[in-house]
Amino acid sequence: MPFSSKSSKSSKSSKSSRSSSLSSNASHGSEKTHTLSVNIYGRGDPAMNDPPAHWGAMIHKTGEQSGDLYHVRKNKDFYYHPQQRPVESTTTYGRSDITRLSNSGRMRAAQVLDSYGNNNSNLPRGNQNCQDWTVGALGSLERQNLAPKGTEGYWKGNIGKASEDIGAQLTKDGMSWVPKSNVQPPRQAPADATFGQSQQVRPVGRLNLDKFANLSGGAKKRT
Hints:
By secondary structure, this protein is α+β, with helices and mostly antiparallel strands.
């Protein structure tokens, strides 16, 4: 028995409704709700004998005050240490927003960064540090079309530079630079070793800076 006209219309209406719903969901899924940025901590000025500034890649929901920071730290050796951090903290110098991501893009980017970070062959070696690792992580995102073309090369050229100079160059190039309003004094210990740790009160005269000499890995100054 053939379908009645009423049944056919009902079927078409149902299909149209499902199609509209899928279209709406797809549109919602492609909405750019998150921001990928390079976050910089510390002054990192070689001319002032500062330790290298600490870099990391952050993904946060646009407008929110915290996000997921993907970076490496160093104890004796470097290790991958993703963690939730404020977008701007007491140690922040500034950040550069690289691109906007949809929620699905955010999840893909997180997977790419975790895959890169959990591969020990990508950890800094020799005189490399967190800056080299962050550049490599950006490259992994770029190859998956989750960061603009040229991102890895641009940031590779900033390795070893003072944070102030990086911010000035980004501004000159018409790229994003969001400085912190109140920049804290430079940290005495290398940021890779002390990042995210609360400061401990030490007796005056007992701080031996020599023991920190081997922790940063020493960023290379690029020209």
